[in-house]
Every structure is written in structure tokens, then in C-alpha cells.
């Protein structure tokens, strides 16, 4: 199994797990030797202070 297949298998193995649980939550891009990792816009959980308004 590939790493992506293993990840999908692990994230959907729990009881009540759905395909949505295995969706990627990050976006990785590389440009001129620099790797950038961003949180996906549609990620259900985002890092940061939960008491602050992210749009402020």
C-alpha cells in the first residue's frame, strides 16, 4: 500500500468514520526549491486560538 492508501485506511477504520474523515487537510506546493504547507480552505479544523475571531 502507498502512504496515501495507508492514511486513508487508518482514517476510515474507526467506527462511524466516513470518507470525509480521510480528505486532505493541507495543501503542499513547491516552487524554486521552497516547500510551502498551507491549511486547506475547506479544512473542518484549523490551527489557532479558538477564542479569537479568525476574520478579525
How would you describe what is shown here?
- The protein has 56 residues and is of the alpha+beta class.
- It has one helix and two strands; from the N terminus they run H-E-E.
- Strands 1-2 form a two-stranded antiparallel sheet.
- The mean pLDDT is 87.
Strand content: 15-25%
Stretches where pLDDT falls below 50 for ≥5 residues? none
* Total beta-strand segments: 2
Q: What composes the largest sheet?
A: 2 strands, antiparallel
State Rg: 15 Å
- Strand order of the biggest β-sheet: 1-2
End-to-end Cα distance, whole Å, is: 43 Å
Mean pLDDT: 87
For this structure, the quaternary state is single chain
Helix content: 10-25%
Helix/strand-derived category reads alpha+beta
Number of helices, counting only DSSP H or I runs of 4 residues or more: 1
**N-to-C series of helices and strands:** HEE
Shape: flat
Provide a compact summary of the structure.
The mean pLDDT is 87. A hairpin with a 2-residue loop joins strand 1 and strand 2.
Feature tags:
56 residues, alpha+beta, two-stranded antiparallel ribbon, 18% helix
Write the topology of this structure.
Layout lengths: L2 H10 L13 E6 L2 E6 L17
Antiparallel strand pairs: 1-2
